[in-house]
Amino acid sequence: MTIRPALYGEHYAPRLIGRRASGDLERVTVVGRHCEAGDILAEDSPLPVDTHPGDLLAVPVAGAYHLSMSSCYNLVGRPPVVAVADGHARLLVRRETLDDLRARDSGL
């Protein structure tokens, strides 16, 4: 998703969202398949011990790599943009779907 952690030492703070978790935290590394095989989004990040594949993580303030410089490399759709304030969330830009990507393909 971003090279900022590797190049600039940027630290993101992923958070588990969408469900309640246990109170216990563990330090983990958050990775993804967004560019290279070794993509690391966040190292040594505290997340609940009961976080598992399929859970939804929010990555606040991901910077330019979140939307303005995003692409659908590896057929990973662009993420949504959500404004959150005072316990309320508002969708600003919806997530790009596989159907969105297919609609752009004119075929052979």
TrEMBL record:
<dbReference type="Pfam" id="PF00278">
    <property type="entry name" value="Orn_DAP_Arg_deC"/>
</dbReference>
<keyword id="KW-0663">Pyridoxal phosphate</keyword>
<dbReference type="InterPro" id="IPR009006">
    <property type="entry name" value="Ala_racemase/Decarboxylase_C"/>
</dbReference>
<dbReference type="InterPro" id="IPR022643">
    <property type="entry name" value="De-COase2_C"/>
</dbReference>
<feature type="domain" description="Orn/DAP/Arg decarboxylase 2 C-terminal">
    <location>
        <begin position="3"/>
        <end position="63"/>
    </location>
</feature>
<protein>
    <recommendedName>
        <fullName>Orn/DAP/Arg decarboxylase 2 C-terminal domain-containing protein</fullName>
    </recommendedName>
</protein>
